[in-house]
Amino acid sequence: MEQRNAGWWPMMLEKLKARANSLKREIHALYLAARDSRTPWYAKAVIACVVAYALSPIDLIPDFIPVLGYLDDLVLLPLGIYLALKLMPVDVLMDARRRAAETTNILAKSWRAALVIVILWLATGIVAGIWLARLFEIDTQSLIGA
Length: 146
Description:
Layout lengths: L1 H33 L6 H15 L12 H20 L2 H13 L8 H25 L4 H4 L3
Helix pairs in contact: 1-2, 1-3, 1-4, 2-3, 2-5
């Protein structure tokens, strides 16, 4: 019984590593596709958000929180990649995947990407706050002292 359980963990770890490498390749391919002039603007916007989030050292839910910390990486990132892939023209995606496979250049974590994510979250928070204030008919002028 002990031997059977011992073989399970390394096999699962290898599968997770392979999936992580696959996600990294897709992120790199998306990055390359976003720089292609044949990519529509709306796909570029989604790709910019997905790649910025993937390369950002800042997570929506910090990784040190048990289970939930990796939930954003396991759910949000693949969903963003899926959406970006659906918006991409097939020929552009194939070219980008080919170029990503040919290069050994790996995209590194970026503080610029973190800045993009922080700005997006701040903008989302401001828009949500304004929407909620209007929904509940809160006088925003009195809140800011005007």
